[in-house]
Amino acid sequence: MSEDVTGIVVPIHLDYTYTPGVAASRFLRHIAEGNYVGQRCPKCKKVYVPPRGSCPTCGVPTDEEVELKQTGTITAFCIVNIPFAGQAVECPYVSATIQLDGADIGFYHLIQEIPYDQIHIGMRVEAVWKPREEWGTTTESIAHFKPTDA
Amino acid sequence: MTEPLVAPHVLEWGYTRSLGPTLTAFFTGLRDRKIVGAKTKTGRVIVPPTPHDPDTGEDVDSLVDVSDEGVVETWSFVSHPRPKQPLDRPFAWALIKLDGADTAMLHVVDGAIETGSRVKAKWRDETVGYITDIECFVPA
Ligand SMILES: [Zn+2]
Predict the structure, then answer these.
(1) pLDDT at position A1
(2) Structurally, how many domains does chain A consist of?
(3) What would the pLDDT profile of B42-52 be if each residue is shown by its tens digit?
(4) A118: domain range?
(5) Burial status of residue A133 (CB atoms within 10 A of its CB: 0-12, 13-18, 19 or more)
(6) CA of A41 to the centre of ligand 1 (A)
(7) Which of B3, B9, B84 sits opposite A13 (nearest CB)?
(8) A58 domain-assigned
(9) Is residue A131 in a domain?
């Protein structure tokens, strides 16, 4: 006679088919080639990266593509101290909003190659890419951002 | 224009649920190929068991074994099962009132079904203490 069954694991499983849409697909295909390409609004001239295909302020399509430099500025950051299931990086680490030079909005990425407690808003950073053979239509093609040496 | 990208996106997480005394008896019973119900102070037998009488809120009187055979009270047929469903062929979800029980339990029926059908549990060769220890119910 074995022991009582005092607990069960209840599985939750959701299968989604995700599409990022036309604009972000273009962005990700450029990423697979090693380029950050945003889109510029024809009216207000703001540059969105990653692009969403339209300007939320002006309500018009953003068709013009703009290749950006791979340097930028930290506009906000968060020190992650709490581990969770599926976490790719060891705690503590920093997730930051980075605004690339020439862009008008920021996106999230990891900041590495510097102690987490030395990271600050306004810090200049640059993209560090994974080896060429690991590039794909994902922002994980960029391993992380690191402080610029300059 | 090039087609938008498409990718699978799977969210999966398992909750570990502690069962408490009443459902511990139910799931332990399944592992031992028995179906356990709760008998209220008024003599009603509730399957699966609850710790309290749903009519009065009082604690139930005792836990009792019921049959693994019973009657289909109502059912809903699934012609095209989806990947995670219990059977890979057409089946019915059914509320089954087991002999000795006063309430019906939801499970799966494989085979011809109508309201009032007699069905019997088909136990798996290996039981672990889970509702799927009963693979399905089949015509008795
Ligand atoms: Zn605009």
Answers:
(1) 56
(2) 1
(3) 999 999 999 99
(4) 22-147
(5) exposed
(6) 5
(7) B84
(8) yes
(9) yes
In angstroms, the separation between the Cα of residue B114 and the nearest Cα of chain A is 30
Residue B116 to chain A, least CA–CA distance (Å): 31
Is B89 exposed, middle or buried (CB count within 10 Å of its CB: 0-12, 13-18, 19+)? exposed
With a cut of 70, say whether residue A150 has pLDDT above it: no
Pick the residue with more confidence: A149 or A35?
A: A35
Smallest Cβ–Cβ distance between B7 and the set A2, A18, A29 belongs to A18
Question: Please, which residues 126-145 of chain A have a Cβ atom closer than 8 Å to chain B?
Answer: 137
Full residue range of the structural domain in which residue B52 is found: 20-139
From chain A residues 32-91, the ones with a CB under 8 A of any chain B CB are 85
Is A25's CB within 8 Å of B4's CB? Answer: yes
Look at residue B12 and tell me if it is in a domain.
no
pLDDT 10s digits, A83-116: 887 777 889 999 999 999 999 999 999 999 999 9
Residue B63 in any domain: the answer is: yes
Q: Determine the Cα–Cα distance for residues B17 and A134; give it in Å rounded to an integer.
A: 39
Q: Looking at chain B, which residue has its C-alpha nearest residue A20?
A: B5
Inform me whether the C-beta atom of residue A21 falls under 8 Å from chain B C-beta atoms.
yes
**How much is the pLDDT for A84?**
80
**How close is the Cα of B2 to the center of ligand 1, in Å?**
24
